[in-house]
Amino acid sequence: MRLQHAVIGSVAAMMVMGSIAQAQDLKVGVSWNNKDSSLETAWEDYIKAEGETQGKAAGLTITWTFNVANGDPARQTANIEDLITGGADVVVARAEDGGAIGASIRAAKDAGIPFVAFDRKSTSAEQPDAFVGGDSTDEATTTTNAFVDILKAKQIHGQCIELQGNLLDSNAVARTKAWNEITTASGVIETVAHVPTEWNPELFRSGLANALKAHPEANCLFTASDFALPAIQAALEDADRWHPTGDDKHMWFASQDLMQDAVKAMKAGYIDVATTWEASNQAKELVRVVIALAKKEDPGCGPDGCLAKGRLATPTNLDTLDHLWSRDYQ
Amino acid sequence: MLLALAALLMAMHVYAPAFLSYRNLINVLVQSSTLGILALGMTVVLITGGIDLSMPANMALSAIIGGMFIQNGGDPAVGCVIMLASATAVGALNGFAIGYLGMIPFVVTLATMSVASGVAAWLSEGLSISKFPESFFDVLLARIGGVPISVLVTILLTIAGTWLLARSIFGRHLYAAGLSPRAARVARVPVQKVTSSAYVFAGAASGIAAILLTARLGAASANMGTDGVVLDIISACVVGGVSIYGGFGRLYNAALGAVIITVISNALNLLGASYFLGLVIKGLVIITFIFLDARGKNK
What we know:
Order of helices and strands of chain B: HHHHHEHEEHHHHEHHH
Strand content of chain B: under 5%
CATH superfamily of the largest domain in chain A: Response regulator
Number of strands of chain B: 4
Strand order of the largest sheet of chain B: 1-4
Radius of gyration of chain B: 19 Å
Distance between the termini of chain B: 20 Å
Pfam family, one (chain A): Peripla_BP_4
Helix content of chain B: over 70%
CATH topology of the largest domain in chain A: Rossmann fold
Structural class of chain B: mainly alpha
Largest sheet of chain A: 6 strands, parallel
Keywords (chain A): Signal
Order of helices and strands of chain A: HEHEHEHEEHEHEHEHEHEHEEH
Shape of chain B: globular
Helix content of chain A: 40-55%
Strand content of chain A: 15-25%
Family (chain A): Belongs to the bacterial solute-binding protein 2 family.
Main location (chain A): other
Number of helices of chain B: 13
CATH architecture of chain B: Orthogonal Bundle
InterPro entries (chain A): Peripla_BP_I (IPR028082), SBP_2_dom (IPR025997)
Strand order of the largest sheet of chain A: 2-1-3-4-5-11
Radius of gyration of chain A: 24 Å
Number of helices of chain A: 11
CATH topology of chain B: ABC transporter involved in vitamin B12 uptake, BtuC
Oligomer: heterodimer
CATH class of the largest domain in chain A: Alpha Beta
CATH architecture of the largest domain in chain A: 3-Layer(aba) Sandwich
Largest sheet of chain B: 2 strands, antiparallel
Number of strands of chain A: 12
Shape of chain A: elongated
Number of domains of chain B: 1
Number of domains of chain A: 2
């Protein structure tokens, strides 16, 4: 009888200890919509590194499982179902399709698993437990304020062309709003042309070319994103305005995101100021939110989600910014 | 093929115990249902010696047309009919061009794929069509005896299609046209009509897949029909023993092929394998089955 009690007691103790050990392990499933650029690789590296650091501080051992949907929303739905079946404690997804991700959010909720939408919001009726992404308003505000300061210091009256994004995209709307509000109040910059690009590189090129013809007096440029820098560069070259700072024909250039091509252009003096699109800070914020949700705590997101701010980059500080993915993952 | 599937299931039971859970098995069947229906359509076309590359794009286009109708307050049942009708119409267009005008299937369906993708993106402005009424999901996401509707539809279509090909005159004509169109013409098989009908069937299969996938995702978008889906459909057919040279293939094998392709993806996900490793494994499986198909043909 005593032996029986001892065995039962040992088994119970092992089960309790096992459950404690299990509680310290956190399995996070991440569903990429695609993996066709170095950005996802950078994100994975930053996420794993942050998981190690923040996980240790929170007393958690985080294991990450990544899968890729190859640009197919049906594949992504299946992949997320597989993550849930595989025992993920938290699911993170960068949606291929903001509408279709709703089915996966519902599946995770049905299974009692927190769901984090990363970088891309859900446009479906189902909303995730948290959204983590870049702070577009803050990015545009930072860039524009710095640009105003630069032109003020140089005593230049800016007559700028604004290259807008797709105005159906909330990021693009936030960026154009911040640019126009700050420049209008500045008294230093006036926007002589607003060019909607729909995030289409062809429209970046043709729209900028047309604006340069219509406004030869333009001496500065703001782009909502520099992912289409080759198209912008081509239009400026055609108009003989692609010249580095210090040159009389230099077009003062403020940019957003600082993607890989833009890093080279900034180093060469063609771009004067930009705010980085922060893969590293987004990863940091994501891990923080994941840990909070796993601990059933409120991650404390704002109305637009948990947003990671970008950093101001200029030709002088470009080499000293740490964890800049677009420079480090060329 | 069943042996391969059984071996895969056993291996997964050992290395990923969650694999054989009820939840996962249902997941696999649901995931393979859309692919299975598309594979049924493709099999009928492959039997004629043709190919239909436009099926995923056709599926996306019809999903968007029907989805827009439902989103704008249309009756979901009518929206489903619109999806089926528009996809069948695209299939009929392919069938007319290939069967009656004698155009090359690969080129015609490649062009149709481009047109359908373009129209789908243009109509939807690149955005996804979502926020459908609950009544749309109530029927299509229901379960009968614990089995999801999409799985039951796939099983029923497979049984009906298998019967049609094995027992009807149309089925015999289809195999005859695929084995040797010239000999079939001599035997007074209406090759043009049979070939056209195969593409109409593939179009209808795309429409049914559009309905089920739209319900499953809760959205329709142009990127439902990516290039990778074509690869998966052809993989399912080839793994299911359907000959890419025409004249041979069974619908139930193609449906099983779809399950195997889905199981491979599911298994790799559960094992946490690299995405790139998955692509390599899928590619190797396809090459192996095409090799076996070619060897069988030479014999």
